[in-house]
Amino acid sequence: MKREPEQLIHGLLVRYFGVLSLVAALLLLDQAVVQPLLLQLNGLGPVINLAGRQRMLSQRMTKAVLAIAHDSDQQGERTAELTESLSRWQEVHDGLQFGNESLQLQGTNVPHIQAALRELDSHVRAISELVTKVIQSSNANNDDVRQILIHEKEFLTRMDSIVGMFEEEAARQVARLRWLGMTATGVVLALMIGLARIIITPASNFIRSQFCQLAASEERFRSLIERMNDGLVVFDEQGCVKYVNHRFAQIIERSPESILGKPLQKLLSGPDLRMFLQMLTNVLPAPDVARELKWELPEGQQCATLAACGRAHVDSVSQEASFLVVTDISELKRAEEELRQAHDALEVRVEERTQALTETNKALATEVRERQSAEERNRLLQAELAHTTRVTTLGQFATGLAHEINQPLGAIANYADLLMVQLDSNVSSPQTLNETAGRIHDSALRAGEIVRRMRSFLKPKPANKSEESINSLIDEVLDLCSPEIRSNQIEVVTDLTETQDFKVFVDSIQIQQVLVNLIHNSIQAMATTGPQRTLSIKTENHIQEVYVFVEDNGPGFPSNCQTAEIVPFQSTKPQGLGMGLSISHSLVTFHQGKLWLENVVPHGARVGFSLKVVQTVSADAHSNHLCR
After folding, report:
1. Closest CA to 284 of 246, 322, 328
2. Are 279 and 326 contacting, i.e. CB atoms less than 8 angstroms apart?
3. Short-list 303, 312, 323, CA closest to 252
4. Rounded distance, CA 409 to CA 401, Å?
5. Do 8 and 206 touch, CB atoms closer than 8 A?
6. Residue 626 — very low, low, confident or very high, per pLDDT cuts 50/70/90?
7. Which of 245, 277, 240 has the alpha carbon at shortest distance from 260?
8. CB of 613 closer than 8 Å to CB of 544
C-alpha cells in the first residue's frame, strides 16, 4: 500500500461517514414516504371492510323496513334494529369521507373516490330520511318501501364501485410500496456493496498490510537482534529467562534452549551475583549504566562482560520485563593484561636502555673531550705548521728582503757620510743639514717598517679574528712580497675596486699567509716562463661574500689537480713539500670560506677563495684606516 496510513484512515473515515449519510437519508426517506404509505395502506383495510359492511347495513335496514311494513308484530323489534343500523350506517358513511378515529377511518384524499362518495350522498340522504320517517312513525307504507328499494339499489351499485375504488387504491399503494421497497432494497444492496468495496475492502487490505508490515518489522527486529555483536537476554522479575539471542548463548557457551525458563542467577556467583540482584531489584543508582559482570562458563572458567540493564513493556499486555545488553570484553581483558605485561616489560627495557644510554653518553662525553683535545692539539700543530710555513716562505724571501733592508741601510750610511762632510765644510746651511738628517730618518723608518712586517708575519700567536679590510690585507702582502716580485721581474696587476669598502672577520696573519702562499706559488710557477710574467690579484663582490683571485700566466695546474681533493704533501714542483695549498685550504675553511683551483685559457693558473663579509667600510673610514 503506497499511501500513508494516516491518509488512508482519513479516506476510510470520509467514506464511512458518507455511507452513514446515505443510510440516514434512506431512513428519512422511509419515515417520509414509506411509513405514511404503510399507515395509509393499513387504513384502507378497515375502509374496505366498513364499506362492505355498509352494504350489509343497507340491506339490513331494507329488510327491517319490509318487516315493519308487512308484519306489525315485529315493528318494535325492527324499529330498534332499524335505529341502530341507521346510526351505524351514517357514522360509517361520514367516516369514509372525513375519517373517524373510533372506527380507525382516516378518510380519503383520493379525488375520484371523494367524488364518488359525494355522488352517493343523495342516496344516503334519501335512505336516511325514509328510514328516519319509518322509525318515527313505526310504520312503513309501500311507497316508502319502494323508494328505499330504489335508493338502496343505486346505493349498493355505487357502493360496490366505491369499494372497488378503495381496493384499486390499496392495490396501487401496495404496488408503490413494493416499488419503493425494491428500490430501497437495491439502494441498501448497493450501499452494502459500496461499503464493502470502498470501506471494508480497503480497511481489510490496510489491516492485512499492517499485519504484514508488523510481521516483517518484527522479523527484521528479530533478525537485527540475532545479528547483534552484543548479547541480549530478557527476563522477568524473578530473573527467569524469557528470550536470549544467539550472541548471548555464544558468550556464555550454552545453547539458547538450555537457558530459556531458567533463572540467570545460576550463571553468576559472588560479587557478580550480588550486582545482578541489585540490578533486578532496581536498587542500583543509574541502573542503565554498563557494569562489569563475569558469567560462569560450563568448563569452570569465567567470561568478563559489560552488562547494561533496562526495562520495557512486553507486547500488548503491558507487562514489564527487564533485559540485559551484554558485551563480551574477555578479549579486551586479555589484551589489557598483555598490554600491562608489555608495559612492565617495556619499563624494564626502558630502564635497561636508559642505563645503557647513560653509559653511552658518558663514553660519548669522554670521546668528545678526547676529540676536542685532539682537535686542540691538531689546531696547535696546524698553527705551528703554518708558522713553520711562514718562516720557510719568509726564508725563501730572505735574499730579496735582505736587499730590501740593505737599500735603506745603505742610504742611511751615505746620508750619514754626506752629513759629516757638510758639517766639516762649515758651508752648508742649517736647512741643508736638516734635509740630510731627514733623509736619514726616513730611510731608518723604512727599514724599521720592513722589519716590523717580517716580525708581524713570523710572530707565532693563536688565532685572533677581527674586522679587517680585505684590500688592506692584500696591499700589505704585496709589500711583503715585493722584493721577490721585483727580483723575478714580475708585473703585478691588481683590481680591488669592487671590495674597496668591504670588511671581513678574519685572522689577518692567517689570511696574509694564504695570500703569501698563493703569490709565492705563482712566482715559482712563472720562473720557467718567458719574460712576460704577470701576477694578477682581483677581488669580486658576491653579495655576502668576497672572492679573491690570484692568477698567473705560468704553465697552469695539471688536469687531475683541478678536481682532486687538496691533500698535504702533494705538489707539482719537484722540490715542493705540498704544504702550501693544503695549509691555505685549511685556513680558508677555518674562516668558513672555500678555495678552488682552475686554469686560465690559453695558459696560466688561477686560485680563488671566498670569505664572509661582515660590513662595508665607508670612504672616510677607509681613508682613516690607510692613515693609520
Report:
1. 322
2. no
3. 303
4. 12
5. yes
6. very low
7. 240
8. yes
SS3 397: coil
Cα torsion 606, 610, 611, 613 to 10°: value is: 110
Q: Could you give the angle at the alpha carbon of 591 between the alpha carbons of 590 and 593, nearest 5°?
A: 105
* Residue of 140, 120, 163 whose CA lies nearest to 61: 140
Res. 400 pLDDT band, cuts 50 70 90: low
Residues in the chain: 628
3-state class percentages of the chain: helix first, strand second, coil last, to nearest 5 = 65, 15, 20
To the nearest 10°, the Cα dihedral for 382, 383, 389, 393? 150
pLDDT for 339-385, tens place per residue?
A: 999 999 999 999 999 999 999 999 999 999 999 998 888 777 777 77
Condensed to tens digits (0 to 9), the pLDDT of residues 231-283 reads 888 888 888 888 888 888 888 888 888 888 888 888 888 888 888 888 877 77
The answer to whether 606 touches 538, Cβ cutoff 8 Å, is no
Strand, helix or coil for residue 578: coil
pLDDT above 70: residue 578: no
Give the closest residue to 281 by CA, choosing from 292, 303, 259, 265.
265
Helices then strands, each counted (H, E), the chain: 17, 12
Cα–Cα distance measured from residue 413 to residue 400, given in angstroms and rounded to the nearest whole number? 20
3-state secondary structure string across 325-336: EEEECHHHHHHH
338-to-218, 301, 302, 330, 348 alpha-carbon distances in Å: 42, 19, 18, 12, 15
- What is the C-alpha separation between 499 and 611, in angstroms, rounded? 12
Mean pLDDT (whole number) for 184-192 = 82
Exposed / middle / buried, residue 404 (Cβ in 10 Å: 0-12, 13-18, 19+): buried
65: number of CA atoms within 13 Å, CB side?
29
Decide if 310 contacts 288 (C-beta within 8 A).
Answer: yes
Q: Which residues contact 504 (CB under 8 A, 6 or more apart)?
A: 467, 468, 470, 511, 546, 591, 611, 612, 613, 614
pTM attached to this predicted model = 0.40
Helix (H, G, I), strand (E, B) or coil at 481: helix
Exposure of 229 by Cβ count < 10 A (0-12 exposed, 13-18 middle, 19+ buried)?
exposed
In this predicted structure, the answer to whether residue 156 has a pLDDT above a threshold of 80 is yes
Q: Is the pLDDT of residue 408 over 50?
A: yes
- The 10 Å Cβ neighbour count of residue 59 is 14
For the range 527-530, what are the long-range contacts, defined as Cβ-Cβ under 8 Å and sequence gap of 24 or more? 527/488, 528/554, 528/555, 529/553, 529/554, 529/555
Cα dihedral 571, 576, 582, 585 sign = negative
Closest CA to 561 of 605, 523, 597, 587: 597
Per-residue burial over 168-199, b = 16 or more CB atoms within 10 Å of its CB, e = otherwise:
ebbeebeeebeebeeebeeeeeebeeebeebb
pLDDT at residue 389 is higher than 90: no
The H or E element that residue 309 is part of is strand 302-314
Q: In Å, what is the CA distance from 272 to each residue of 26, 362, 504?
A: 73, 56, 84
Q: At what angle do helices 201-227 and 5-29 cross, to 10 degrees?
A: 160
Q: Which set of grid coordinates corresponds to residue 619?
A: 670612504
Pure H helices in 228-326: 246-251, 256-259, 270-280
